[in-house]
Amino acid sequence: MAQAVSPESLVYTRHRPVAIAASVGTIRPPAIDSAVLAPGAHVTFDFGEELVGTVEFTAETKAGSRLEIIEGEDLEEALLLQDPFPPDHWYHQPHDHFTLTAGASRLATPGRRGFRFATFVAHGPGEIRVSTVTAVLEHAPLQSIGRFACSDELLNRAWEISRRTLQLCLQGFYEDGVKRDGMLWIGDYRVEFLCAWPLFADTALARRSLRMMAACRRPDGALSAVALDAGGHLFPRIAYLGDLSVHGGLHEWVLDNYCADFVCAVWEYVLHTGDLPLARELEPAFEGVLDYLARISLAQVVPGRGFITDNQPDGKDWWGSRAALGFQLAAAFGDAAQLHERLGNPVRATWCREMHTTRLNETITAFGDPAGGQTRDESSDAATRSWHAHAAAFLAGAIDAAQLRAVYRQLQTDPSVRRPMAGFMEFYLLQAWMRAGLIEEALDEMRSYYGQMLRSGATTTWELVDRREPGIDHIQPAGRSHCHGWSAGPAQLLPAHVLGVTPTSPGYRTVDIRPALGGLGWAEGTVPTPHGPIEIGISAHDPGFVDVPSGITATLHLPGHSPMTLNVGRQTLVM
Predict the structure, then answer these.
(1) pLDDT computed for residue 478 by the predictor
(2) Is residue 478 part of a domain?
């Protein structure tokens, strides 16, 4: 069984509050990191940005006085003085309780929390003086390498909150959300790795996470959706989810689209790192998954239970598009064929290519041709259509870039076509648009999706965004996460498609550079590779530059020009 990283190997930094967000019944106005609380009073400290870690403080009182701390990712959550969830709910708002001894004591919350705000509540019988309130931030020891900046400040801020989100979610493994689950989910990991690579060039946590997923293989070849049996959880440091070290129902949940994600994630890991030895080590696991995926019947799998596609726009529950799943299965076989070619398994590679074609054809036959924008989420003629299915069709190779561009306006102007809410589906939508050359349209979509977060004060990326609502997607009733790595798409999409740097063979031995400003005045950044960073700057009006390290063969693609192999070192780039 893979072992999670020990707390001793994490990085810890101390943060003071920046403001008092709320105060009721305090004795004298509270200071920025201290307050005197009468019985029944409470004060909320604002740390200014999302953090993950513990809250430390000094409390001075008479013996037997009781103090409570309520952490929240937004102020609304931190002011929920009662847990709003019923006893049998899967999630419970953390409340930390302390019974104080006489005099002054230095204390800390007993478990790791994800929060921006911390509310201190005095329950008496004596008044309590709280002072030197401090948050201790923790995360994995990763070095920031990648960078991105452009002429649009909103996109720069979207990139920055994506960077910060990933920094917080990379702990002992790739976590899905630092406040709530704190678990290693396959679907979250896949997007998080793609977004974390251009920032940190991480291999250690990714390698550990993939091994933990593979360790949760079931007899039928499928993988558990969340790697709990391999230690992919934070228990006992977060106790409200129950004892996840004991095998139970959640440990056995299989999501077919997450199984497909595992296969794609192994290929994407190899493509970025060049680590074929790990792929060979994981080969029994992804081979078992492929055999499992080959047996899936799209007519029988149960949406919302056997696979998920996105949050339901009306009921805010999980729903599934069978068409999207069909194309996701096809994409997994397509990526597996590339893996097997690199691993020297030509017979298995041929079978995967055949399965890729079979899955594409059966999905189009059952749900409609995406080339005409007619793919339905179910086989019924009255079923909904979604961007999810059409984006998945393009990413799987069912339609090409010209065909996606041809149906773009038809789908985008039809209000009945479902659009992403959850961050991982927003990532795949934007990825499809950008790969198809819809750069300007994708940047506008990014401004809309991430702009709603930023207008509501987000310092990290939310689990989902419902753009029918004017502001924040409230914590209740589902305990949404406001620091969710699967929503950190700008960290990957902007350098990959605006700067245009993408690997075309494992370990960045060959690279395509297809810069596309999409209406921006300029953009620049650093993209890490195993051979050293690629530096690039592009401008709509002035010459730019590209700096290619040795060990890489980079091909420049510019509209109206033949592809050109770039020299190693710094050279001028004219758009």
Answers:
(1) 45
(2) no
| Cα dihedral 112/116/122/127 (nearest 10) | 110
Range list of H helices, 97-247: 153-169, 186-200, 204-214
76 by DSSP, 3-state: which? Answer: helix
The token pair at 90 is: 């899967």
> Does any domain span residue 225?
no
The tens digit of pLDDT for each residue in 181-213 reads: 899 999 999 999 999 999 999 999 999 999 999
- In angstroms, the CA 390 to CA 404 distance is 8
Q: Token pair of 405, please?
A: 């561009």
Tally of structural domains, the chain: 2
**CATH code at 552?**
2.60.420.10
Nearest to 169 by CA among 161, 160, 178, 180: 178
Mean pLDDT over 236-248 rounds to 78
* Residue 334 in domain: no
Please give the Cα distance from 534 to 554 (Å, whole number).
10
Q: Kindly write down the DSSP assignment for every residue of 430-441, as one continuous string.
A: HHHHHHTT-HHH
Phi and psi, residue 94, nearest 5°: -65, 130
Q: Which of 24-28, 443-447, 558-562 has the lowest mean pLDDT?
A: 558-562
CATH of the domain at 45: 2.60.120.260
- What pLDDT, on the 0 to 100 scale, is given for residue 93? 85
Per-residue pLDDT at 445? 97
Domain end: 106, 139, 172, which one?
Answer: 139
Pair of tokens at residue 474: 């409230």
Q: Nearest 5°: phi and psi at 99?
A: -105, 115
Burial class (CB in 10 A: 0-12, 13-18, 19+), 445: buried
For residue 498, tell me if it sits in a domain: no
- pLDDT 10s digits, 64-94: 899 999 999 999 899 999 988 888 877 888 8
- pLDDT for 1: 40
* pLDDT (tens digit per residue) in 387-419: 999 999 999 999 999 999 999 999 999 999 999
Listed residue (180, 190, 209, 453) closest to 331, CA to CA = 190
Cβ atoms 106, 143 nearer than 8 A: no
Look-up: residue for tokens 């700067």?
499
pLDDT digits (tens, 9 = 90+) for 518-545: 999 999 999 999 999 999 999 999 999 9
pLDDT of 167 strictly over 60: yes
Residues 287, 353: Cα–Cα separation, whole Å: 14
Q: Is the pLDDT of residue 118 over 60?
A: yes
Neighbours of 305 (CB within 10 A): 12
Which residues are CB-contacts of 333 (< 8 A; sequence separation ≥ 6)? 263, 290, 293, 352, 353, 355, 356, 359
Burial category of 82 from C-beta neighbours within 10 Å (exposed 0-12, middle 13-18, buried 19 and up): exposed
Say if residues 498 and 516 touch (Cβ distance below 8 Å): yes
Domain boundary among 84, 114, 139: 139
User: Domain residues for 552?
Assistant: 510-573
* Stretch among 36-50, 215-229, 353-367, 466-480 having the lowest mean pLDDT: 466-480
Burial class (CB in 10 A: 0-12, 13-18, 19+), 24: middle
